[in-house]
Design a protein that fits this description.
Length: 377
């Protein structure tokens, strides 16, 4: 129920690949907010810290199990145990990453300094420049689905694709592209702005004078860099003490999995055959915020604190704590109607499908400022 009366319910049988409406919706942000129980916007410092404690406890137990008992296992079992540890620890640490992401949105507590302190510690421990990413990600939220101003995974028109792009749209090339994206996509984005919006000069997340940031933000970029330097030095000391192989096994491989999940989650939230993009003639904030999709990662939804299956409501109200996002999503579905999109295709299937189907965007014949994904050469 919105301010304008009862809205149509979401059709349960909707094809997730059916295009969402690209016209201005018949509801406002205020209508959507009225449908959400008021308590969903209340941030609890104690409850937020409980998730930090839970994730860090799980990470420590996995570390303790691996470093205390794995060497006692006979070779066949030890060969299996380490990959299981890497995946499990990578999933748990992705949850830690999500909590730091909450801090960047001021969704962790009512105190900005607490959010920034917790976020800086958690993100730095995962080699993420907290303030740098906080500011670029904030601009992504302010410009979602804008072809001119969105910050990441900005699709290209067919005319701007590389000359060899069509040769990669076959299974071997697609597999190579996906593996490269999952393994190297995150550090390449931070260091070289790969897949980010174009700037008039070199942009990265470590240089305080990068065009990504304004003058008031530059000091905090130095602080982000300081956090990375401190953690890097600690890792260096651990490698000298324990050995590089030990560090890679315990920390390095799980970190690669964290980075891979981060790229996959972000890519799948904003890349879907049913979602439009807009140029400046059509874009507005609400339609941009709605141009995202909720995905189902099974049990990993909980491990990732539901950042996967509540992303639409997160883009509408980014300061809402994650532990109310499921309740809020359920409340807004009747208001959003056809504008809400959930795709429960398994994420590994969806990743392959979207890499095949969403190669570039073309303008809608009926409405020139609206662009849809295409894959035909």
């Amino acid at each position: 129920m919105g301010a304008g009366g009862q809205m149509p319910a979401v059709r349960k049988t909707r094809n997730p690949l059916e295009r969402v409406p690209s016209t201005k919706p018949p509801f406002t942000v205020g209508d959507i907010k009225k449908a959400i129980p008021p308590h969903c916007f209340n941030r609890s410092l104690l409850r937020s810290f409980s998730y930090v404690a839970y994730d860090l406890t799980a990470a420590f137990l996995l570390y303790h199990l691996a470093t205390t008992y794995f060497h006692l296992l006979p070779p066949p079992l030890s060969s299996v145990a380490w990959p299981v540890y890497w995946v499990a620890q990578g999933c748990v640490l992705t949850g830690v990453w999500v909590i730091a992401h909450e801090c960047g949105h001021h969704a962790f507590s009512d105190h900005q300094w607490i959010d920034d302190t917790v976020g800086l510690i958690l993100h730095s421990s995962l080699l993420v420049p907290y303030f740098s990413w906080k500011y670029s990600h904030r601009r992504h939220h302010s410009n979602t689905a804008s072809l001119e101003r969105d910050e990441v995974f900005v699709p290209k028109p067919k005319s701007k694709l590389s000359c060899y792009a069509k040769y990669l749209n076959y299974p071997p090339g697609r597999l190579l592209t996906l593996l490269t994206t999952l393994i190297l996509g995150w550090p390449l984005y931070l260091a070289f702005n790969v897949s980010g919006r174009p700037y008039d000069r070199f942009a990265n997340h470590f240089a305080p004078n990068s065009p990504i940031f304004n003058t008031r933000e530059r000091l905090q970029i130095w602080i982000s860099d300081g956090g990375i330097i401190i953690i890097s030095y600690l890792l260096y000391r651990i490698a000298m003490l324990k050995g590089l192989t030990w560090l890679i096994s315990v920390y390095g491989v799980p970190l690669l999995i964290v980075n891979g999940f981060l790229v996959m989650i972000t890519y799948l939230q904003h890349t879907h055959p049913s979602l439009p993009h807009y140029d400046d003639s059509e874009w507005d904030w609400l339609r941009g915020a709605l141009a995202t999709v909720d995905r189902d990662y099974g049990v990993l939804n909980k491990v990732f604190h539901n950042i996967t299956d509540t992303h639409v409501v997160h883009h509408l109200f980014s300061t809402m704590p994650h532990y109310y996002a499921m309740e809020a999503t359920k409340a807004v579905k009747p208001v959003l109607g056809e504008y809400y999109r959930l795709d429960d295709t398994p994420f590994y299937v969806a990743m392959w499908r979207e890499a095949k189907e969403c190669l570039y965007v073309e303008s809608d014949e009926k409405k020139g400022g609206v662009f849809w994904y295409m894959n035909k050469y």
